[in-house]
Amino acid sequence: MYIVQIASECAPVIKAGGLGDVVYGLSRELETRGHTVEIILPKYDCMRYDHIWGLHEAYNDLWVPWYDAAIHCTVYCGWVHGRLCFFIEPHSEDFFFDRGIYYGHKDDNMRFAFFSKAALQFLQQSGKRPDILHCHDWQTGLVPVMLYEIYQWHGLGNVRVCYTIHNFKHQGIGGTEVLWATGLNQESYYFEYDRLRDNFNPFVLNFMKGGIVYSNHVTTVSPHHAWEAHLGEFGYGLGHTLHQHEHKFSGVLNGIDYDVWNPEIDRYIPEPFSKADLTPKQLSKKALRERLWLQHGDKPIIAYIGRFDDQKGVHLVHHAIYYALHRNAQFVLLGSPTEEGIAAWFWHEKFFLNNNPDVHLELSFNEELSHLIYAGADMIVVPSNFEPCGLTQMIGLKYGTVPIVRGVGGLVNTVFDRDYDTTHPSEDRNGYVFYQTDYRALESAMDRAIGLWHHYPEDFETLQLQGMAYDYSWNHPGGDYLAIYEYIRHK
Q: Within 13 Å, how many C-alpha atoms sit on residue 343's CB side?
């Protein structure tokens, strides 16, 4: 098959979150299985050009209709760690992608509406005719809309669309200006409830809803989160739309890249280790303590790795720090606060705990250090309020770092409680799960994990090895997506 991914990110050249990892990892898996994959991206001024090989002009005369005129674009081509990527650069006074950041501007809806239009125009003008367009999140929600309403009549009639939603919280909102800019035009038509009109605000259009309505298949990034979005609170107002289109909606668990996250080949840790020999993991623990000035001793290290925002359950992360210290454990935190209030709170805690030899708070993100933390920690806590998939717990499992997670989203599909899981035999359980958002729930799970480490070290090692035995690579989701592609191709 010939597959084109259209997205706003692709790691490591453009990465603001897990979306970039998914686009890269899935593309590589599909290529490994013998399919042709190309990726279309915006050409941001702030992307990591050092991760692009052979960047050159591939198409320098792309004219994209926009309002009553057209914007001239140049399309660049280059290889991102083996993936063939096309980068669209508009020559416009709007400077759509020359802003110094990927997201965060008041006109983001227009920026990515233009990108969606430009991607389709590039396919149409260049003669590319993929079997599948795979679009991601609200930024490309208008792609299936414009494909069906405009571009199927201009040579792209046989193209099918798979639309993946990574985060329902951000949906993309626009008004009539989006219709007139993109050439969709017909206000009364698109403001009908069954098309693009937002479910709760009748005066705006919802990009993500458009993607759901017009695509041939819709996925989100774990089976449990698909249920939460459809029937629970995490569809953020799109539950009824998902119900109307439930026949084409499913959850496919993300994978992680075992060429990057693998203690057997990790170049950022002192010595490789595997489930065949876990002993060298202690060298990573020692190196982690020395790097972060933690005292040596017979204590477990509990880690948190990730950004700080309301999604991640920061009140429980904060509580986990002090409960770990109370239970004779050490705590290491790595991540960047995304909100001023949260940043102020954790900087206060950093100064308050600065001289404590059992805790280190690193309020930034450091890729190299994250590898050492995954390898050196004994446990990793993921107390998210919601978590569509989650990569942290899957990486932790690979490194023999026992996850302590809240039972939401993809965390439910990947972590199975050692003591209370009823769906897996004891030899297949791999961590600890709690469900409520209060301190006692978190303490209960942490208490069981820390207690096992202190009092039953052989059983704790068994739990580590059981976690390392799981395969959360792109192997399984790659097969799931190919099955979806084949189904919608012949539907």
A: 6
For residue 102, name the pLDDT band (cuts at 50, 70, 90): very high
All structural domains of the chain with their residue ranges: 2-255+475-489, 281-468
Report whether the peptide linkage leading into residue 403 is cis, meaning its omega lies within 30 degrees of zero: no
Distance CA 236, CA 246 (A): 16
Task: Give me the torsion for CA of 251, 257, 262, 266, rounded to 10°.
Answer: -150
Angle between helices 142-149 and 108-126 (to 10 degrees): 50
Cα 420 off chain centre by: 28
CA distance 63 to 177: 20
Report DSSP letters for 376-395, one per residue: H-SEEEE--S--SS-SHHHH
Q: Distance between CA atoms of 91 and 169, rounded to whole angstroms? A: 31
The Cβ of residue 99 has, within 10 Å, a number of other Cβ atoms equal to 16
Average pLDDT (332-348) is: 92
Cβ contacts of 295 within 8 Å, gap of 6 or more:
289, 357, 358
Percent of the chain at pLDDT > 70 equals 100
> Per CATH, is 2-255+475-489 categorized as 3.30.930.10?
no
Q: Hey, which CATH number is domain 281-468, 3.90.180.10, 3.40.50.2000, 3.90.850.10, 2.160.20.10?
A: 3.40.50.2000
Residues 156-182 have pLDDT tens digits of: 999 999 999 999 999 999 999 999 999
DSSP codes of every residue in 100-151: SSSS--TTHHHHHHHHHHHHHHHHHHHT---SEEEEETGGGTHHHHHHHHTG
Q: Which residues pair with 40 in a beta bridge?
A: 6, 86
Yes or no: say if 196 and 205 are a contact pair by the CB < 8 Å rule. Answer: yes
Is the pLDDT assigned to residue 331 strictly greater than 90?
yes
Decide: 383 and 313 in contact? Cβ < 8 Å: yes
Mean pLDDT of the chain: 96
Tokens of 103: 């997201």
Residue 308 has pLDDT above 90, yes or no: no
User: In the structure encoding, which two tokens stand for residue 462, read together?
Assistant: 């068994």
For residue 200, give the nearest of 241, 242, 239, 237 by alpha carbon: 237
E strands, 326-411, in order: 330-334, 359-362, 379-382, 402-406
Tell me how crowded residue 151 is: count the other CB atoms within 10 A of its CB. Answer: 18
CB 266 within 8 A of CB 248: no
pLDDT (0 to 100) of residue 283: 98
